[in-house]
Write a structure and sequence with these properties.
The protein has 154 residues and is mostly helical. It has 6 helices and 3 strands. Strands 1-3-2 form a 3-stranded antiparallel β-sheet. The N and C termini lie far apart (37 Å).
C-alpha cells in the first residue's frame, strides 16, 4: 500500500501534469494556445449552452468581471459568442462558435481517452475502490472550499 507521502507526491504531480497536458493537447488540436481556464470555460458553456454569463462565473468560481475578460479573449479566438437575452436585455448569454464546439468535443475526447486508459485496466472491484477513494478526495476539497467561504472569486 502506498504511503501517505507517496500518495501526496502523486496527487500534486498528477494535478499539475493534467493541466499542462490539457493545455498542450488543446493547443495542438486547435492550432493556437488556450489556457486551462479557457478550456474549463469552454467545457462549462458546451455542456449547458446557451448559458448565462453569471451562471458560468458562479460554476467555475470567478467573478463576472473576470469571466468577461476571459470571454473577450475567447471571442477574439472565435471560440465563444455572447448575446443579449431577448426576453431580458440585462442578461448576457454565451454559446460556442463552430470552432468552440470543435474545441469542446476535442477536450471531451481527451478526457474520454484519459479515463479509458485507467478504467480499461481495472477489474470492477478495483474501479469501485478507485471511485470511492476519489469521492473521499472530492469531499475533502469541498470541505476545504466551504471553509474558505465558498469558491474563489478569482
Amino acid at each position: 500500500m502506498a504511503s501517505a507521502e507517496q500518495l501526496n507526491s502523486f496527487l500534486v504531480d498528477m494535478f499539475g501534469r493534467i493541466n499542462k497536458i490539457e493545455e498542450r493537447v488543446m493547443a495542438e488540436g486547435l492550432g493556437s494556445a488556450v489556457s486551462i481556464t479557457e478550456i474549463h470555460i469552454i467545457e462549462k458553456i458546451g455542456a449547458l449552452e446557451p448559458i448565462r454569463m453569471s451562471e458560468v462565473a458562479r460554476s467555475i468560481g470567478v467573478t463576472l468581471a473576470t469571466l468577461t475578460v476571459a470571454c473577450d479573449k475567447l471571442e477574439a479566438k472565435d471560440l465563444v459568442r455572447r448575446s443579449r437575452d431577448k426576453s431580458d436585455r440585462r442578461v448576457v448569454n454565451v454559446t460556442l462558435t463552430d470552432k468552440g464546439r470543435a474545441a469542446y468535443e476535442y477536450h471531451r475526447a481527451f478526457h474520454d481517452r484519459m479515463i479509458a486508459s485507467v478504467m480499461d485496466t481495472l477489474s470492477p472491484e478495483q474501479a469501485a475502490i478507485l471511485a470511492q477513494s476519489l469521492e473521499k478526495l472530492q469531499d475533502f476539497f469541498q470541505q476545504e472550499e466551504a471553509g474558505m467561504g465558498g469558491a474563489a472569486n478569482g
